[in-house]
Structure formats: structure tokens, C-alpha cells
């Protein structure tokens, strides 16, 4: 079953335990996948898109999740 719930910067930040501004910075630097949906100029990602991205992204050195 797919999770089609849309996440904003806030939900992504909570999921990976960082501040929303950090997630915005990831997007600005091309480290975040392209948004799955844009509404009124605001980007949103499916929860599954972000979970897949988290599973495949390099971990920060010294940080345990």
C-alpha cells in the first residue's frame, strides 16, 4: 500500500529531525527530490517519496538515527 499523504517542509523536517529551514536548504542545493505536487507556489512531497529519499541518502558522519 502506498502512502499518498502530502508532506510540506515541516513534516519532512520532523521526519528527519531537523529544522524546516534545513529542508529548504536541501532543496535549494538540489539535495531533495523534486516536489510531487505544487499548490499556490508551495511544494509538497508524498510521504513515500521522502521515505525513499531518506533510505537512500548518505548519513551525516557521527550522527546516529
Automatic annotation (TrEMBL):
Q: What is this protein called?
A: MarR family transcriptional regulator
Gene3D superfamilies registered for this protein in UniProt? 1.10.1660.10
- List the SUPFAM superfamilies: Putative DNA-binding domain
The HTH merR-type domain extends over 9-42
Residues crossing the lipid bilayer are none
Q: Which domain of life is it from?
A: Bacteria
Give the InterPro entries listed for this entry. DNA-bd_dom_put_sf, MerR-type_HTH_dom
Amino acid at each position: 500500500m502506498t502512502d499518498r499523504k502530502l508532506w510540506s517542509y515541516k513534516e519532512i523536517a520532523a521526519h528527519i529531525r531537523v529544522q524546516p529551514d534545513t529542508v529548504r536548504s536541501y532543496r535549494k542545493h538540489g539535495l531533495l527530490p523534486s516536489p510531487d505536487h505544487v499548490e499556490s507556489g508551495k511544494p509538497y512531497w508524498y510521504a513515500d517519496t521522502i521515505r525513499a529519499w531518506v533510505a537512500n541518502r548518505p548519513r551525516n558522519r557521527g550522527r546516529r538515527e
